[in-house]
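tool_call: predict_structure(chain=1)
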Amino acid sequence: MNLRMLAVQLLLGLALLFPAVGPVRGQESPDVTRRIVHKVEPSYPELAKKMNLRGTVKVLATVAPDGTVRSVHAMGGSPVLIKATEDSLYKWRFASAAVETKEVIELHFNPQQ
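tool_result:
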C-alpha cells in the first residue's frame, strides 16, 4: 500500500477516535482566568485542509507570572490539529500575575473559515 495513503488512513482513524467539532476557529474557552494580551491564531494544517477536518482542541497551558506560556498539555482534540494549537499558544502572552497559573483553552478549527 502506498505510504502516503497509509498515513492518511491512520490520521483519519485517529480523528475518528478523538472526534472534536466546533463552528468557530480560534475562540478561547470561558475557563481562561487571565486576560490574553497577545493572541496568535493557529495556522490550519495542510493535511487537515485536505481531509476537510474540523474540530476543537482543548489544552491546559501553564502560564508563567510574566505572562509567557511555559508548557502546553493537550487534553483533547484531533492529533492533526494539536500541533498547530501548541505552536500558536507558545506565541500568546497573558497579563502578568503574582504566580504561575494553569489555563484551560479551547481552539476551534473549521476548514470553511
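agent: The helical segments are 3-17, 46-50, 79-89. Proceeding to next step.
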